[in-house]
Structure formats: structure tokens, C-alpha cells
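Page 42, continued from yesterday. The earlier attempt failed because a stray header line got pasted into the input along with the sequence. Redoing it now with the clean sequence only.
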Amino acid sequence: QVQLVESGGDLVQAGGSLRLSCAASGRFFSIDDMGWYRQAPGKEREFVGMDSNYGTVTYSDSVKGRFTVSRDKTRNTVDLQMNSLKPEDTGVYYCRADGVNAPGRIYPETVWGRGTQVTVSS
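This time it went through. C-alpha cells are written below.
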């Protein structure tokens, strides 16, 4: 009933910027947290940044100061502004929603998007 769709992934040179967007759609009552994870080639998926239900934003140390998570509860979207990109930022970026309360579901759910590719060339 709930879907997350990411967009904005692209090929960019090191030092450049990119903005990713994620939109939640379907039937749901509320979402607690929305944010971003990423998975580099040959590595496990890692946390990037997330906006809580109360508007508190946290980031991983590797992106702190360079990336910004912006959530719009009215539009049910969350964006990721990425500046000063490095080759090590390359990977598939996934949108994640935690505590999704939806009709027909007994418990809150975690929902993942399918991901969008970000490639940073050196």
C-alpha cells in the first residue's frame, strides 16, 4: 500500500553537487522517520542521514557538513542535497521510511525505495 520512489541520481564529477528526491505514495496514516541510506559497490548498505518524526536530523560522520536531509511532511517527501561529492560517495542511494502506519497492517512497517544510482567520477 505504501511505496517510496527515488529520483535524481546521475553521473557527476568530484566536487560537484546533486539533489536526490524521494516521494511516499499510497495509503498510510503517518510516517515516523524518513531518510537515506546508500550502498557502494562491494560494500554493505550504510546509513547516510535521516529526519525523525520530531524534525531532528542526524547524519553519518562521512557525510556530515556536505549532505543535507530536507523533509516535507505536507508533501510526504524527503530530499538529499549532496555537495562536495567524492568518488567514495558513489553507490545506490535508497530512501527509507520507518514507522509507517497503514490501513490493513497490524504493525508499523519499514519501507524501502528501489534506489537511485549516484556515480562520482574522479
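Notes: The mean pLDDT is 96.
Reminder to self: strip header lines before submitting.
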